[in-house]
């Protein structure tokens, strides 16, 4: 097979990923996309293993023969965007323009605003996210937005960062420049020269890292600071549990408050799942499995693009979330909704202000806990104990949109996700009851055994992933020993 022979193949994300981890047999290979949306896109699999998007054609009006033009590294550009760029390249060739040289000339000057627009066009973002990113960007001065992104220097970043702070807040200034930093990362992947190297040689926003010039928390997202402090967990969980038996001064003096009971379970479920409050409040019992171990969500949109995916996706729950549903079911509310309002005909509010106020008052930590903080807390704790970032996404977003591998992977991983969720739950329980006895399967376990079990989980010489698995193993050993006596 000659060097430029073309191998027909329908391109897919998995096909490209598999190519990128192998080296071609017998030298460089060229693959031609057979998808009807290909726009003439090809892949060059180089002898070193790199995979590059290319197109083949002749520039109209020139005497040169057909040749290959590089679009960019396949690990940096999505298949969707590569197909779109292939169409653009062919249009340029039909206009008598050398596509690579034309693009290179066109981007010797690109404003920060154009970079922002390119970012939004090439990302699959929800409308709310686009709106948020645009608000972040528009905090910059008009003059700075129109600057040539290739010419912005580190001193310019420091000056504008301070200017945004004066007009807005410390946090908003940091948030805005985290967005600018992301634009440069995006540009480095998408704007390449003939040698497939980025024309963006530097990210000037790194000066804020290098000089420790971020205003809040080292420039990290609010989730790092806006989560429940582990020192406050005992007070917060106790206040949530006590809410079930709340007694008012005028109302509910002698009986339970329906809304207080539901709010208590609602807050607890949010904390132990990390799910969005606006989605949790609308869960119906028809979505919950009979065993209460899973909640089903319609995921038809994600399933259409993933082999062997589930149209109805079952999100696994950890033991604490299951206990919460068991407790709530015990109240016998005759409603379709898991978290019903007082009339039982509709769902509970996603951010019940009265009970957020009550939680703040009874927890007595001096802090306010809106419903969104439980999601941030779950994610922050998961990061802290080493749960992989992709797994965290799969735990808190009940959809298969984050799954990218082939058949069998989704179903096999449900129990893995449940175990990882339980790790976060164990972490919460550990810090919520550090100086007390910790409940484990209706048995009180002294905290020193919990600490020993945590040490076992960290030990790489065994296969334990959860504190509960270690405790169960020890209990079984004790039972066998007792039977031998």
Automatic annotation (TrEMBL):
UniProt cross-references to InterPro entries, sorted A to Z: DNA_brk_join_enz (IPR011010), Integrase-like_cat_sf (IPR013762), Integrase_DNA-bd_sf (IPR038488), Integrase_DNA_bind_dom (IPR025166), Phage_Integrase (IPR050808)
One MF annotation (Gene Ontology) recorded for this entry: DNA binding
Coiled-coil blocks: none
GO biological process, one term: DNA integration
UniProt KW keywords: DNA integration, DNA recombination
Pfam families associated with the record: Arm-DNA-bind_3
Entry keyword annotation includes Cell inner membrane: no
Record protein name field: Integrase family protein
Source species: Vibrio fortis
């Amino acid at each position: 097979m000659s060097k430029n022979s073309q191998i027909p193949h329908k391109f897919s994300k998995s096909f490209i990923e598999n190519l990128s981890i192998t080296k071609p047999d017998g030298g460089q290979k060229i693959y031609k996309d057979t998808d009807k949306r290909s726009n003439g896109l090809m892949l060059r699999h180089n002898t070193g293993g790199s995979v590059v998007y290319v197109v083949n054609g002749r520039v109209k009006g020139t005497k040169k023969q057909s040749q290959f033009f590089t679009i960019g590294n396949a690990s940096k550009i999505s298949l969707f965007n590569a197909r779109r760029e292939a169409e653009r390249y062919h249009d340029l060739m039909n206009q008598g323009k050398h596509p690579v040289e034309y693009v290179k000339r066109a981007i010797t000057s690109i404003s920060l605003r154009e970079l922002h627009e390119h970012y939004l066009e090439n990302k699959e973002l929800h409308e709310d996210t686009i709106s948020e990113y645009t608000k972040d960007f528009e905090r910059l001065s008009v003059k700075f937005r129109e600057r040539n992104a290739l010419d912005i220097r580190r001193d310019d970043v420091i000056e504008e960062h301070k200017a945004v702070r004066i007009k807005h807040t410390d946090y908003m200034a940091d948030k805005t420049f985290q967005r600018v930093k992301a634009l440069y990362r995006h540009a480095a992947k998408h704007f390449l020269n003939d040698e497939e190297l980025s024309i963006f040689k530097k990210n000037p926003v790194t000066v804020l890292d290098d000089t420790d010039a971020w205003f809040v928390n080292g420039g990290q997202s609010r989730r790092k600071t806006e989560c429940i402090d582990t020192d406050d967990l005992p007070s917060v969980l106790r206040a949530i549990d006590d809410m079930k038996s709340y007694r008012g001064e005028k109302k509910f003096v002698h009986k339970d408050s329906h809304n207080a009971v539901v709010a208590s379970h609602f807050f607890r479920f949010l904390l132990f799942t990390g799910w969005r409050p606006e989605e949790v409040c609308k869960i119906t019992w028809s979505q919950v499995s009979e065993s209460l171990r899973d909640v089903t969500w319609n995921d038809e949109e994600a399933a259409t693009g993933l082999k062997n995916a589930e149209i109805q996706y079952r999100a696994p729950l950890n033991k604490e979330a299951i206990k919460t549903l068991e407790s709530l079911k015990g109240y016998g509310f005759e409603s379709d909704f898991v978290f019903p309002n007082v009339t039982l005909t509709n769902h509970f509010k996603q951010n019940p202000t009265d009970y957020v106020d009550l939680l703040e008052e009874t927890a007595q930590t001096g802090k306010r806990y809106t419903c969104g903080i439980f999601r941030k807390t779950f994610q922050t704790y998961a990061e802290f104990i080493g749960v992989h970032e992709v797994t965290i996404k799969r735990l808190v977003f009940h959809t298969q949109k984050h799954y990218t591998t082939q058949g069998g992977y989704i179903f096999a991983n449900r129990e893995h996700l449940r175990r990882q969720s339980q790790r976060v739950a164990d972490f919460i329980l550990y810090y919520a009851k550090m100086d007390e006895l910790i409940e484990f399967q209706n048995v009180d376990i002294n905290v020193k055994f919990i600490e020993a079990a945590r040490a076992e989980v960290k030990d790489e010489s065994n296969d334990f992933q959860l504190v509960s698995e270690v405790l169960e193993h020890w209990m079984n050993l004790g039972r066998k020993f007792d039977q031998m006596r």
